[in-house]
Design a protein that fits this description.
Elements (H helix, E strand, L loop, with lengths): L2 H35 L1 H7 L12 E8 L19 H13 L3 E10 L1 E3 H18 L3 E10 L1 H4 L6 E4 L4 E3 L4 E2 L5 H7 L19 H26 L3 H7 L4 E3 H6 L5 E2 L2 H12 L4 E2 L4 H9 L1 H6 L4 H11 L5 E4 L4
Parallel strand pairs: 1-2, 1-10, 2-4, 4-5, 4-6, 5-9
Antiparallel strand pairs: 3-11, 6-8, 7-11
Length: 328
């Protein structure tokens, strides 16, 4: 082995050791940050928020932005963006106890989400109205479709931006049939079950009927919610609720919203009705700052097989029912 080969080999070994050392350091640093360094921020992100509301009358802005779904475990390495379900539910609970709060402005920018979380938020808003006697106004931004409309339905008044997409009243349960792909790849899927309907990897006519009955039940609930919130008959809602979306003008003509306007104008109108021009909302700035700061570290950490499988299950919707806009 000549001198150049020896030097090249030494450099390769050095780079290998350096890369391994950096990888170990990044993983250990991430673990230490998650477990100890900023537990207080972790608590804030996961719902243990200390709500410091104004000591004067105010309208609380409750934001429903992004997919309505379960709030995952938050940390410095996970983004605080999007809808935060547990935090939102806790926030509304605190508002019910606050005598300075005069109402809620629900800011919706969502294509929908899971029926479980949509129903929970709907019930929490109804509880807020019944317990306090205070109004709930909704402003629809880009989207307030499917689950986004579901949570808006109990509002005393619904406003929409001139370019809002809303409606999409319906339910979807979806997934992939990979049997054809498996056959081409020579992969044989095997399952041992306790009953004929336990495995739904390939759907029989009986299984399709079972799942259709579940979707129909959730759809009936959606129709009930809209009919109650908009003072419409069941038949009127069903004529509109075939899953299609509506423009703001179409929604207004069909009685799904009350008024079209820009956000600033709506705030002025609500301020006049509420008797205060103070609008309060939770500040997610700290969470966003730290998630951005350490986001690059998170990307360096390789995903485990379980994480990859979990993400795939979420992408294929995993057999869950959704109040979500069909076309995305």
């Amino acid at each position: 082995m000549n001198r150049k080969q020896i030097i090249g080999l030494a450099v390769a070994v050095f780079l290998f050791i350096l890369t391994g050392t950096i990888s170990v350091f990044v993983n250990r640093t991430a673990e230490q940050i998650n477990q100890s360094a900023l537990d207080s921020i972790e608590q804030t992100l996961t719902g243990g928020v200390s709500f410091s509301t104004p000591l004067s009358d105010y309208v609380a802005v409750v934001r429903v932005e992004g997919t309505i779904q379960q709030q995952g475990a938050a940390s410095l390495l996970t983004s605080a963006g999007g809808y935060q379900h547990s935090t939102t539910m806790d926030y509304i609970d605190r508002l019910m106890e606050d005598g300075f709060n005069t109402g809620i402005l629900l800011y919706v920018d969502s294509p929908g989400g899971t029926i479980y979380e949509s129903e929970e938020l709907y019930r929490k808003l109804v509880e807020y109205k019944e317990e306090t006697g205070r109004p709930v106004w909704t402003y629809m931004a880009h989207y307030a479709a499917s689950g986004g409309y579901y949570v808006s339905a109990p509002s005393d008044r619904i406003y929409a931006n001139p370019n809002t997409t809303t409606g999409s009243i319906g339910v979807i349960m979806a997934g992939y049939d990979l049997s054809g792909l498996y056959e081409k790849l020579g992969i044989r899927y095997v399952s041992i079950t306790s009953g004929s309907n336990k495995d739904s990897s390939t759907l029989s006519d009986e299984q399709v009927a079972i799942y259709q009955s579940q979707v129909d039940e959730a759809y009936d609930r959606f129709v009930e919610i809209v009919a109650d919130g908009r003072n419409m008959s069941d038949e009127q809602v069903r004529e509109l609720a075939d899953g299609r979306t509506y423009t703001a003008r179409q929604a207004l003509e069909n009685g799904l919203i009350d008024e079209i306007g820009l956000y600033d104008d709506v705030r002025e109108q609500i301020a006049s009705e509420a008797g205060t021009d103070i609008f309060y909302e939770l500040d997610a700035g700290v969470a966003t700052m730290f998630s951005s700061l350490f986001g690059s570290i998170r990307e360096l950490i390789p995903k485990s097989e379980s994480q990859i499988l979990q993400e795939l299950a979420e992408e294929t919707q995993g057999g869950l029912q959704y109040y979500v806009q069909g076309l995305q």
